[in-house]
Amino acid sequence: MRPMQNDFITNYHGLALFSGGLDSILAVRVLMEQGLKIKCVHFVTPFFGDEAKVPFWRREYGLDIDAVDISAPYTAMLRSKPAHGVGSVLNPCVDCKILMMQKAVSLLPVYGASFLASGEVLGQRPMSQRRDTLNIIRRDAGVRELLLRPLCAKHLEPTPMEESGLVDREKLYDFSGRGRKGQMELAARFGITKIPTPAGGCLLTERENARSFWPVLQHSPAEAGDFRLALTGRQLWSFQGGKPFWLCVGRDKRDNEALQGITGENDLTFKVRDFPGPLAVARQLQPWPDELIKDAAAFMASFSGKAAASGGHVSVRVHRGVKGLDGPGFEVEVAPSRSTPAGWAEYQWENAKSEIKENMGR
Predict the structure, then answer these.
(1) Has this prediction a pTM greater than 0.85?
(2) How many angstroms separate the CA atoms of 220 and 70, rounded?
(3) What's the farthest any 2 CA atoms get from each other in the chain?
(4) 108 and 116 in contact (C-beta within 8 Å)?
């Protein structure tokens, strides 16, 4: 997923960061109304963004949009401890904005554009849209002379784009605060009838997701695929001799199918033979000893109701690598048990919360 590049670059006046929320739609339409050609860039990571919605946004709102995957630099930013800390959960909102702005700057020559635009509104979000924070983002992203915020521009100092006459400041807006009346009136004037829910949808703002993401961030390489795995099924951890071991157990058919699709070449997959039940995936952060493989097999087999009710030992097939259930493997005989020596357990939010506060400066 990368910007579309043709043999002949189509020049745009500006490049807009597009979340899919109403503010980003309005910001672009305000500039388009002035006759400016704007390319929208929709950034995608394991935590936010939805490339599948781009065709709808193009049709419904008349916008020119490309999806751009920034998973690698985003996860690297999380691993390196966000410079400006995190919000109420695990959301690095300020560093997130800075990273996206920096990436957008690098795309300006790709699209032949000369400035950036965003749909931020002064005072709308408590962490990333205070006046001081908006200035920090502009400064640290190196976009002081490049960034235009059309919806709250009249509360901010004029930009070079306005001073040069490229953008008519009088046709920009002075929205501020959490109220949406001004945006709704502007949407009605543009004939926008399908109002999207407030943008955001960042998984890092949700406790349930954060408690699954945090041990991944602490104990794994924390690459994009690791966070995608952390969203699928039950997330179980065991710590043996100070080493972390990670097991994901599907809750239903949908989870099982998803787990098969994201299995890595060094992962182990577990499936009970002769009984219906879940698929489990073990991400090998280090090699698993044989006794732990058998322990995990007994634990995951306990989620097969019929296997657990059989009252005896069952066979669990263990496979290695991306071929999953179709690849070479071996079998272990185990008694299904929810209480095994490895003590598999989900990470609890209270533990994650205290560790995030200690390690992320919140």
Answers:
(1) yes
(2) 19
(3) 80
(4) yes
